[in-house]
Amino acid sequence: MFQFASRLRGGYQKNLLLLHTRDQQGLSDWQTVKAKIEAQAPDIEVRIDSNDDPDPATLRWQASRPSLVFSPMRLLNYRPLAGRIYAGQPMGKIQEWQRLAEANLPMPKTTRLTPGLVLDPAEWGAYVVVKPVAGLRGQNVRLIRTQDAAARFAELTGNARQRMLVQQFIDSIDAEGRTVSYRCLTMFGKPLCCHAQFWTEPRPPLADIAASHGRIASNDQKQARTDRLHIEPGLIELAARVAAAFPEIPCLGQDWVRDRATGKLYILETNSAGAIWHLSSLAYLDYLERFAGLGPDYLRDRYRQFGALDVVADQLIERTRAEAC
Predict the structure, then answer these.
(1) pLDDT value at position 219?
(2) Which among 33, 72, 212, 267 counts the fewest CB atoms within 10 Å?
(3) Beta strands 164-168 and 127-132: pairing type?
């Protein structure tokens, strides 16, 4: 204790930079985290800057001591000169799939959609999901009959202009027949918020979906949905294992489903680029207000579920002290 106190007499020892990304996070989140860290860690100087339009003076300050830069979102216009960097990182679905497979995590069988691809329905099931390698918010995710994969190659890939994956369909519906998925926002493997997202109406028969529009993504923007805070049994432990497979990425928005027949959980996405701060992102706040009918009480409960901003502050103090460079 005496040794630590004597170090503090010399002033700040480490710099911590919190990067705020316009529309992706509420600035007040970082102001609250900054205040929490300052109250607990007098050895760390904390500043907030913009990931979109950074102040050049921040670069000089950041490099003036051992430092750590934190941004849930990928770096945009801030380019650190030094220090330990923890930020979101874009990752193609193939690379993501390989990471998950190497870590022996539960994920649906996945392969590239190629001309002449033959899939055995006995192994893959009667239906599969086709999705873009570079997807966004459920766009161009389609349910098709497994036996039709090869015949529909040109149609589904835009004559090979778009790379697509084929994935085993996991039938995740609740007792009312509604499609349900689970999102767990993690920071260094610690949960910040866990919720379930439901279609508001029962899902049509799979044969009807495959024969028409094919839209099956749980987050399909054309499908009416709602949310509720929910900690799915077994998910927290698995989410920590997923985070460990991506140690360089601080925050992940992990999407999970549970097979209604086997009860097994499967990881679908990690959303590693970082548009995942759905505690205060404008897109999520707009969705809650306009489509889900959920108001301020639900938002406050999301922060309270795990004490999200306390977890963020504690994790950043620990990482800054151990890894700032």
Answers:
(1) 60
(2) 212
(3) antiparallel
